[in-house]
Design goal:
Elements: H1 2-24, H2 26-36, H3 51-68, H4 72-90, H5 107-114, H6 131-136, H7 161-166
């Protein structure tokens, strides 16, 4: 259990900065924009990712955890948690979780990351622990509020699986 929590903390720190880079570096944003192109938030929105982004994320998290020497079963449990948790935080669960939202990422926190409002741009990069966003100045969680809409400004990402796979490679 200690290794599992350590993996969560370490990978969240790495993913925070990688996620932030996916938003700030134009070449990376084109891949991540596929994920943000969902105009509604529901359980499947977390799975809408370009396959190269998934490879980069796992290479930057699971591979170093294995090299550092974490037990393989702790890493596998973490990867399973990431996929289940992603489904949860992208879900259209319209409830607030009170004080727990200050400790862990819950749907409302992550929905603001996907919000189309101007104040929702480039906020809430943490995957598990919102304290990272507080620490690095990217925390945004208005009391009791949810975003009014989702997607990418101007909706440039085309619809359709193959079009989205090819989108990052087009000018």
């Amino acid at each position: 259990m200690v290794q599992f929590i350590a993996i969560m903390l370490l990978t969240d720190f790495v993913q925070y900065w990688l996620h932030r880079a996916f938003h700030r570096v134009p070449a990376l944003w084109r891949f991540h924009a596929v994920h943000h192109s969902a105009r509604t938030m529901d359980w499947i929105a977390g799975a809408r990712m370009h396959f190269l982004e998934i490879i980069i994320l796992r290479a930057a998290t699971a591979t170093p955890a294995l090299v550092i020497g974490f037990d393989e079963s702790a890493i596998q449990a973490y990867v399973l948690l990431v996929y289940v948790y992603s489904t949860f935080i992208h879900g259209n669960i319209g409830t607030n979780f009170g004080f727990l939202e200050k400790v862990l990422v819950f749907p409302r926190f992550h929905h603001w990351h996907h919000g189309i409002e101007d104040d929702a741009v480039d906020v809430n990069f943490a995957i598990h622990f919102p304290f990272l966003d507080k620490l690095f100045g990217t925390y945004h969680l208005p009391d009791g509020q949810w975003p009014n809409g989702y997607g990418v400004q101007g909706h440039p990402v085309p619809k359709g699986y193959w079009k989205q796979i090819l989108y990052p490679f087009q000018r």
